Amino acid sequence: xIDRTDPEGAIAEAAAKYSNWGRWGADDVLGTVNFLTEAxxxxxxxxxxxxxxxxxxxxxxxxxxxxxxxxxxxPVHTMLDTGTDAALGLxxxxxxxxxxxxxxxxxxxxxxxxxxxxxxxxxxxxxNGRPAExxxxxxxxxxxxxxxxxxxxxxxGVLLDVGRVIGENGELPDGFAITEEHLEATAEAHGxxxxxxxxxxxxxxQLARARREGWGEYAGGPAPGLSFTSIGWLHRTQITAIxxxxxxxEVRPNEFDDAFQPVHQVVIPNMGLLIGEMWDLDAxxxxxxxxxxxxxxxxxxxxxxxxxxxxxxxxxxxK
Length: 319
Prior knowledge:
The protein folds into two domains: 7-70 and 107-318, 3-Layer(bba) Sandwich (Glucose Oxidase, domain 1), CATH 3.50.30.50; 73-104, no CATH class. It is built from ten helices and 15 strands. It has helices spanning 7-17, 38-45, 83-87, 132-135, 162-166, 180-190, 206-213, 231-236, 262-271, 282-291, and strands at residues 53-55, 76-81, 101-105, 113-115, 136-137, 140-141, 154-160, 177-178, 199-202, 225-226, 241-244, 274-277, 295-299, 310-312, 316-318. It holds the Pfam family Cyclase. It comes from Actinocorallia libanotica. This is Cyclase family protein.
């Protein structure tokens, strides 16, 4: 049971119980990505049967859900050279050649993305017990920058469509807390096992609802998501990473009276677990429901932005 009045105590207890500090040595920068071995990548690659692929990314454009909270805006895409410039001969190139060029300005966590290990701290401590002020400075994440994850993130992916199995009409209501029991029941319904090194994607159906009804409070408002009580499952299964189709991964409002993202506070700096948010799982989920296969090869490398604490990603699921 959760004591709603004591988030501090619950976070401290979970952080101590599920800490992976020192598990892979004092210098580790990968956290649970260490579980994703070469053997797991071969296992994932062997899951490709039909060759059909799905992008799990939302669009990166001005029509996204962001409303400016903590300066998170939607991407701004600007053309530097256009076909008009070329047609009018304004580009100054010889023999009729012309071209187009563009630039994008965006927060790194404004659409489909990974939270890096330098994104969240617990009482001033970053992943593996390092002092936060020595890890992330004005120069960026000097230790666990997202570029450290540019190569390893491909392997066996598993979809847990909790919205379809537990919800109504394929969707969970806002504020629904996904427990270990819900995750296990969904895996059983799909006939799939979750284990060491897997990249798990959890569909709640909230993104489908937002597309139907409008963004509303999708970015930061009430949402279905992982319960604080699911942290033990996240640790015990030894998964590499987990992503959802929601803005904040964990259930919102959070399960304590006065708290902000307590699951993040435990699993990122203490467990070293990689978290993805705002993934688009609807097309993949429809295909999985159709053929009954909920495992696939998943490639989801972040952009290697040096020192970044998060990164946009275009995850590809191949079945």
